[in-house]
Amino acid sequence: MAISDPRLDLLIYAHDGRGLGHASRGIAVGAAVRRLYPELKVLFLSGCRQTDALIGPIPLDWIKLPAYEKVVIRGGPQARVGKTNLKNSRLVKSRTRLIKAIVAEYRPRCVLVDHEAPGKRAELVPAIESNPDTSWILGLRGIIGGVEDVWSQEALYIFKKRYRALFWYGDESVLGRETLRAIENRYGVEPFIAGYVSRLKEMVFWSAPGVQADRPYAGTIAVSWNSPAAMSVLTSLRQVLSRMGEQYGIWRIFSNSGKEIFKDLSFCRFEELGPEYLYALLNSKTALVYGGYNSITDILSAKVPALVLLRDLADREQEDHLAKLAASGQAAMQVMPETNVSADRLQAFLENLLRTVWPQDSRLNLDGAENAAKKLVEYL
User: Fold this and answer.
1) What pLDDT digit, counting tens, does each position of 94-104 carry?
2) Per residue in 352-371, is it b (16+ CB within 10 Å) or e — as a string?
3) Which residues does 226 contact at the CB level (< 8 Å), separation at least 6?
4) Does the N-terminal or the C-terminal CB of the chain have fewer CB atoms within 10 Å?
């Protein structure tokens, strides 16, 4: 009797960044692989604390690394000591050794890496150098922005030395060829155009029947940031919902802070971010989200008109991305910087969106997870 090969088929790595986009893309691709090729051995690796909530019912196992911690100061990310109380230099060394040991233990045939070829702070490099018989694949989001670690000489060196292919998670018909040309010129390869990766689209497959009902909720609010600006948004939102009252129905509010602000509003359900968020979004007439890749693909998949808030970030990636989506007429999206939020402006935007018809049809290619899964199998 033949003995099954103990090697892992696919390891998916996503570092823990400012938001949830890196982990969300990796989980969506992992979900598509599990859906299309259930016999394959797949593992997800990240320090993202919300991974368990993002995976939800998807049959995808994962390993949690100790997390990096970041705050945004003057538009840019700044590292700070995380929950382990390890200094960042010590944490980098620890994660680097852990990743190398994990790759040595599972000997994956293929590793899909999100965003940075060397990994966050070059933590993948020893594992990459020690496993030349593994196919390393890099995935980049549709609009990259001025992320130094993506365009660095170190990223280029390790990519050319060890990587086999590059996936682009965008839609050329909407975003144009500007980013594609930049990738081709820098990395010297023609990217595989996968399309936008939507975790929501994959999650629906693994969820219980009836996950999408008849939009009984007024709106879904998602504020994943814990910052003074985000708390100001929640405070303004409380004023707005208090004025509007119950006339539009129940509001689902997902945030890890600010619960006490809404405790006296019976028509507001305050919950921590988790799998219920996607169910609520699919059943809402409108939404308020921040403008990261993950949140944008969520509202486009749910076909819901939305108000999108922009954080004050120096790389302007979100502004560029949303401007291109708006110009293509993909969906009813209103955009507002979080620093410009006031109760009056917020109420005007939300009431306008509540009068907008839904579902909002989109021509955007949202099959990136499935397309990436099918392409990955070619490298196995």
Assistant:
1) 999 999 999 99
2) ebbeeebebebebbbbbbbb
3) 256, 257
4) N
Contacts with 189 (C-beta within 8 Å, 6 or more apart), sequence order: 165, 166, 183
pTM of the model as a whole: 0.89
Answer yes or no: are the C-beta atoms of 338 and 311 closer than 8 Å: yes
* DSSP output for 183-227: HHHHHSS--EE-----HHHHHHHHSPTT-S-S--EEEEEEE---S
By C-alpha distance, which of 378, 372, 326, 24 is closest to 170? 372
For tokens 């689209």, name the residue: 201
d(CA 313, CA 301): 25
Among 283, 346, 282, CA closest to 309: 346
Using CA atoms, how far apart are residues 317 and 10, in angstroms rounded to an integer? 30
Q: In what order do the strands lie in the sheet with 163-169?
A: 61-64, 42-46, 10-13, 110-114, 135-141, 163-169, 192-193
Here the contacts of 41-44 (C-beta below 8 Å, separation 24 or greater) are 41/7, 41/8, 41/9, 41/10, 42/8, 42/9, 42/10, 42/11, 42/12, 43/8, 43/10, 43/11, 43/12, 43/106, 43/108, 44/11, 44/12, 44/14
For 55-99, how does the pLDDT look when each residue is reduced to its tens digit (9 = 90+)? 988 999 999 999 887 555 454 455 555 677 678 889 999 999 999
Token pair belonging to 302: 């749910």
Give Cα 299 distance to the centre of its chain: 12
| Separation CA 46–CA 317 (nearest Å) | 23
